[in-house]
Design brief:
12 helices, about 20% strand, alpha/beta, five-stranded mixed β-sheet, globular, about 40% helix, UDP-N-acetylmuramoyl-L-alanine:D-glutamate ligase, 13 strands, single chain, eight-stranded mixed β-sheet
């Protein structure tokens, strides 16, 4: 089958609510600064009412990544679950309006479309409370084989590793992609995902993954060490391509014995780190899908991450294609 997409992603369809917050507010709400935690409907409603005024935008980690791929001029598709409600329609409209293919079967019932309440402090750290709702109901039936087969890289969001049915959907997508000769990528998403599912993730990575994305905390948690170098070596031994970010310290990409250490792009002022890892992944995936080198792909990721942390919101506001062209990368 000919390729129709650079990247097809499977993830949590989430609407982000992003607002400024003080450390005192986090303490009052008993929120662990810089972490992501899952919450129920009641907690989502009460926290939303107490948050400062902010912005609401379609998000979700993998959704943000394919939005970045589209901003780079790439072709992307998305698989995720929304409810038949207002937020579900907002999510569908937002992602299709930027050129990403998304054709869901909306869920009907008590669960609403998922949302992530993000409180951002003055140091640009984001504390996320996520109500998964319908996003948590993804099943293998939602995975379209034809869509998976038509993508150069299939990208899986680690947050979805928690629900059993979603994990089965992951496995189905990986099987289809491998049979079609496509590459499969996984982002570990968060240290809490690693702590909850370490052994299963290691098995999944060893058996089905070509590319794994992680940050420094996640990769060290995966291999139960505080030695970053040792953790990076262990990950690169398990997959064809290991991609690890270190915030302001840049990132490292290793593939088939080749290593690229990429510096972070300069930013005049960091406003909000929400979506930094997602946009970094967008740049790398686009680069790899288009045959760029490791170093070039990493630089694309750094440029995309720098753009998104310069404003509120997890998706690009300045077209990434123009930034990449100015850097001589595409």
């Amino acid at each position: 089958m000919p390729l129709s997409y650079d990247v097809a992603a499977v993830g949590n369809a989430i609407v982000d609510v992003i607002a400024p917050a003080s450390d005192a507010f986090l303490a009052e709400e008993k929120l662990d600064k810089g972490a992501m935690m899952l919450i129920d409907t009641a907690r989502a409603d009460s926290l939303y009412k107490r948050m400062a005024a902010g912005i609401e935008a379609s998000g979700g980690s993998a959704g943000n990544t394919v939005a970045g791929v589209a901003s780079l001029g790439g072709k992307a598709a998305y698989i995720g679950k929304v409810a038949k409600d207002t937020l579900g329609e907002v999510f569908r409209h937002d992602i299709t309006a930027i050129g990403v293919h998304f054709d869901p079967t909306p869920m009907v019932g008590e669960e609403g479309t998922g949302r992530c309440l993000i409180n951002v402090t003055d140091d640009a750290q984001r504390t996320m409370c996520t109500y998964l709702g319908a996003a948590n109901a993804l099943t293998p039936d939602d995975v379209d084989p034809a869509l998976i087969e038509a993508a150069g890289i299939v990208y899986l969001e680690g947050y979805l590793f928690d629900p059993p049915a979603a994990r089965e959907a992951f496995a189905k997508a990986a099987r289809i992609a491998r049979k079609a000769g496509r590459r499969v990528a996984l982002t570990l998403s968060d240290a809490f995902v690693v702590h909850r599912h370490r052994d299963a993730l290691l098995d999944f990575i060893a058996g089905d993954m070509d590319i794994v994305f992680a940050n420094e905390v996640e990769v060290c948690a995966m291999f139960e060490t505080e030695d970053f170098g040792a953790a990076l070596k262990a990950l690169s031994a398990k997959v064809e391509t290991a991609v690890v970010t270190r915030g302001a310290a840049g990132s490292t990409l290793i593939s088939k014995g080749e290593r690229a250490d990429v510096a972070a792009e300069p930013v005049a002022k960091v406003i909000d780190t929400t979506g930094a890892g997602d946009q970094y992944a967008a740049g790398v995936l686009f680069g790899l899908a288009r045959g760029l080198t490791l170093a070039q792909s990493g630089r694309l990721g750094a440029i995309a991450a720098a753009e998104v942390i310069s404003h509120y919101g997890p998706r690009p506001q300045t077209p990434l294609k123009g930034l990449a062209e100015a850097a001589g990368l595409i």
